Amino acid sequence: MSLRPTATPVFLDGAPSPSQRRFEVLLILGSWTVFGIIQTGQQLAYTARLGTNMPLDLAMTTAFAGAAVWAVLTLVVFRLARRFPLDRTPRAPAIVVHTIASCIVAFLEVTSTFVIAALTGMLGPDATFLDFFFRGFPFNILVYWMIAGVMHALMYYRRLRLRDVQTAQLTSRLAQTELHLLKSQLHPHFLFNALNSVSALMHKDVKAADRMLARLSELLRGALDHHSSHEVSLEEELEFLDAYLEIEQVRLGDRLSVEIDVQNNVRDARVPHMILQPLVENAIRHGIAPRAAPGHITIRARGRRGMLDLEVIDDGVGITPKRIVAGRGHNGGLGLANTRARLEQLYGGAFGFEPKAMNSGGFRVALTIPFRPASEPVKEEESVET
After folding, report:
1. CA-CA distance, 10 to 215, in Å (whole number)?
2. For residue 271, is pLDDT > 60?
3. What's the half-sphere exposure (Cβ side, CA atoms, 13 Å) at 21?
4. Phi, psi (degrees; rounded to nearest 5) at 122
5. pTM, whole model, 2 decimals?
6. The pLDDT of residue 378 is above 70
7. Which residue has the higher pLDDT, 25 or 378?
8. Given a cut of 70, is residue 330 above it in pLDDT?
9. pLDDT tens for residues 234-269?
């Protein structure tokens, strides 16, 4: 499994992603368009109060020309804010840059306003550049820092979003890693127990042991085919379990009988790979095998209200409640603890797990997981953009 971090189009500083660039441009155009509309209305209202009616086209020209100047200057401020963020240490260089830039931007805006007023005939006969400068320069300084603040807020928001995405991706990768580790524990555990069975059978029935080895090789090949798969269809899981039961049937003969009771409409349900085999192995090795009388195992699967119910029931020697509370199998091994851990990693809290000693003897493990058809595609993580 690859643990490389998933690429994301979110950038904290430097060149923005295409989606971020589009968002910034739309934000600037939209904001200053609204400003132009408001400014047009204010000019019309002001001249109306003075008893002179300014033509609408003239009011719009002056207002939107000023807004266009600020839109261009805002692009410059955004670029400077991204290039010299104030939250980066040392802060002194960035503060100096923005202080100088604010003066330059304020001066350029005053100059542009003066030129626009002159070209549109809005410049009064006694108006001078100094009048425009002292009236507009301090306000423009304030506007510059407000625009820089907006850009810093956007960068901070993107940084938080990126951190959330990276945290989610890391959590997912850790969960995937833990699932692989849990599953990798099952393979040697299962192989060790199967080889012990072959070894014991070699002293009793060599031909049966040979058949068992051949079946074991096929079973291991099937396990390795799904080594990287966390889930398979219930039908595939039952086929794998059937191969395992053939091995145990060779060893136990008439001492073991198995009933598989599965609704046809749930055979396509997605289940964790090798979820049933450890439970059946526990039932055989620590419920059926220790006693001389024949034993029976029932495996059930039912669907209800979007959930899949699985049961493994044996009529063997059972298990004490104290060992069930410990979350361990009949032999204190991997069985129940590993199963519960895998279910938690795959489904979070959306599963049921109930190991229970039967009053009449034997043991029952009931699982409840979300019903999802194997044909339904697995949802992949979605990248997050601002």
Report:
1. 52
2. yes
3. 7
4. -90, -5
5. 0.51
6. no
7. 25
8. no
9. 999 998 888 888 878 877 888 999 999 999 999 999
Shared domain for 160 and 287, answered yes or no, is no
Question: Do residues 251 and 200 lie in contact, with contact meaning Cβ atoms separated by under 8 Å?
Answer: yes
Look at residue 210 and tell me whether its pLDDT is greater than 90: no
Q: Residue written as tokens 């300014």?
A: 54
Q: With beta carbons less than 8 A apart as the criterion, state whether 80 and 97 touch.
A: yes
- Rounded CA separation 28/38 (Å): 15
**Domain containing 52: what range?**
18-167
Give the per-residue pLDDT at 172: 63
Name the one residue in this structure whose structure tokens are 């007023």: 117
Contact present, 250 and 206 (Cβ < 8 Å): no
In this structure, is residue 385 part of a structural domain?
no
User: 283, 314 in Cβ contact below 8 A?
Assistant: yes
Q: Please list the residues that pair with 299 across neighbouring strands.
A: 260, 312
Single out the residue in 149, 167, 185 at which a domain terminates: 167
372 neighbors 270 (Cβ within 8 angstroms): yes
Any residues with CB less than 8 A from the CB of 76 and at least 6 apart, and which?
101, 105
89: left (phi over 0), alpha (psi -120 to 50) or beta: beta
